[in-house]
Specification:
five-stranded mixed sheet, two-stranded parallel ribbon, alpha/beta, 4 helices, single chain
Length: 203
């Protein structure tokens, strides 16, 4: 570990104490995990404490860990998380902050939009695609799918073809929703399906 990353880890331990887990260094980046209970408090410390000073939030995304962790409804594993990427211009270092929503059926986390206003559209995207609600967000609505969209398309259990499709109905002179009419089709590549695919015969 470089001296710079070691210094960041030391500062994180000193400032955040037991509010977060132990900083993890992988691929040259530091990640800390925080519970939903301390998420807002830790985010404020990361931004405002002079030994950290993460002035910029450069990314925030939702994650569905259901198949990765073997979640399958197990009570000791959480399904939905939010991952934020922060930058300190003052100290020239970066940090990944991860927190899991405590309720898998209705995932809710505090909004950090009041701390970093760049979180606005990112949180709307995580809401739209994963169904993660951000408490305190003043304009939480869909951003990529249309307002009548059913479900959250980045969840691992969302079907590839979706639940409904929409089309313009010339008789009604408006867009209507209807059940999906796409027929399931084989999507396995021929190289996998056909044992002899691509092999040149010898005669």
């Amino acid at each position: 570990m470089s001296a710079k990353l070691e210094k960041l880890c030391q500062n994180l331990r000193a400032v955040l104490g037991d509010r977060t887990g132990e900083p993890v260094v992988a691929c040259g980046e530091v990640t800390v995990e925080v519970s939903a209970e301390h998420y807002l408090e830790v985010a404020a410390l990361l931004r405002d404490h002079p030994d950290l000073r993460f002035e910029q939030l450069i990314d925030l995304c939702g994650v569905d860990y259901s198949t990765y962790t073997g979640w399958e409804g197990k009570p000791n594993l959480r399904r939905f998380a939010v991952v934020s990427h922060l930058t300190s211009v003052t100290h020239n270092w970066r940090l990944r902050l991860r927190t899991f929503a405590s309720d898998d059926e209705f995932p809710v986390l505090p909004s950090i939009n009041d701390l970093w206003n760049s979180a606005n559209w990112y949180e709307r995207e995580a809401f739209d695609l994963y169904g993660i609600h951000f408490d305190g967000h003043t304009d939480l609505r869909r951003i990529l799918t249309d307002y009548g969209f059913v479900g959250h398309p980045f969840r691992k259990d969302f079907p590839i073809s979706g639940y409904v499709e929409m089309r313009y109905d010339p008789e009604q002179k408006r867009v209507i929703y209807q059940p999906v009419t796409i027929e399931p089709r084989e999507v396995t590549p021929r190289i996998v399906r056909e044992e002899q695919y691509g092999k040149v015969g010898r005669g």
